[in-house]
TrEMBL record:
PROSITE patterns: CUB, EGF_LAM_2. It comes from Homalodisca liturata. The keyword Oxidoreductase does not apply. GO terms for biological process: animal organ morphogenesis; axon guidance; tissue development. This is Laminin EGF-like domain-containing protein. SMART domains: EGF_Lam. One of its GO terms (cellular component) is basement membrane. Disulfide bonds join 49-58, 61-75.
Length: 250
């Protein structure tokens, strides 16, 4: 954990006093420390948090997010009437926490209507590089089929914008008749997720990843013709499924 001509400094990713008997020890940032900044302060050990976490060890979610970020867990962007996710970094969204003030004033149980617009680009900038937005709905989904299903769109649907952005439905998801996790991808550079929650005990969580060549392809994908794709012979959301050789003709 030390560096320098005389091993007198703590390396990035560690903290302490390299010249003392205690020496240096690894940062404890629950896998959310920013490596570009050195993970944590080399003297105090206070973490440089990312992934929408905060606290000395990145053990809490920022305001507006919920979850358990300990041991690398995800913080989910809460339900909002119109929430924007613009980060290039992997992140989460979900309906299990919401801003309730607007609903609590109504008579009867609250009905949460959640809308997330995911776009790592400036919506008005046509020169941005193309990217694929990947959404994975977690297995803990509890959503009754019908009006309360989770609707996922590639682009902006008409009820959000009547502008030039076209959209198509990528899927309508609920608990029944589907094996989770489920992965969908938007290729327009924008994705919209809409969910109206009638039962406060129901809800879902999902994770979002932006795939962009060549710098933001996951390690299990390769950049080919401007797209992050699975290596030849593999397929699936994480490229773990093997394709049969010779297009299954052998």
């Amino acid at each position: 954990w030390t560096t320098g001509e005389f091993c007198q400094y703590c390396k990035a990713g560690s903290y302490g006093n390299a010249t003392s008997p205690e020496g240096c020890r690894g940062c404890n940032c629950n896998e959310h420390g920013n490596t570009a900044l050195g993970v944590c302060d080399t003297v105090t050990g206070v973490c440089y948090c990312q992934d929408n976490t905060e606290g000395p060890t990145c053990n809490k979610c920022k305001k507006g997010y919920y979850g358990d970020p300990r041991r690398g867990g995800t913080c989910y962007f809460q339900c909002m009437a119109r929430g924007m996710l613009t980060s290039w970094e992997p992140q989460g969204l979900g309906s299990r926490l919401a801003e309730m003030s607007a609903w609590e004033s109504r008579q009867g149980p609250p009905s949460r209507e959640c809308l997330w617009i995911i776009s790592p680009h400036d919506l008005h900038n046509k020169t941005e590089v193309s990217s694929v937005i990947q959404l994975v709905i977690d297995p803990d989904i509890s959503v009754t089929c019908g009006d309360n299903s989770v609707y996922v769109y590639d682009g902006l649907p008409d009820f959000v914008s009547m502008g030039t952005h076209q959209s198509q439905v990528l899927g309508v998801f609920c608990t029944q008749d589907t094996i989770y996790p489920v992965t969908v991808e938007a290729r327009s550079g924008m994705m919209t997720v809409h969910y109206k929650q009638g039962d406060p005990l129901e809800g879902f969580n999902a994770s979002v990843t932006v795939l962009t060549c060549p710098d933001r392809c996951p390690r299990n994908r390769v950049c080919r013709q401007g797209a992050c794709v699975c290596p030849e012979g593999t397929t699936g959301p994480d490229c773990s499924d093997q394709l049969c050789s010779n297009n299954c003709t052998a």
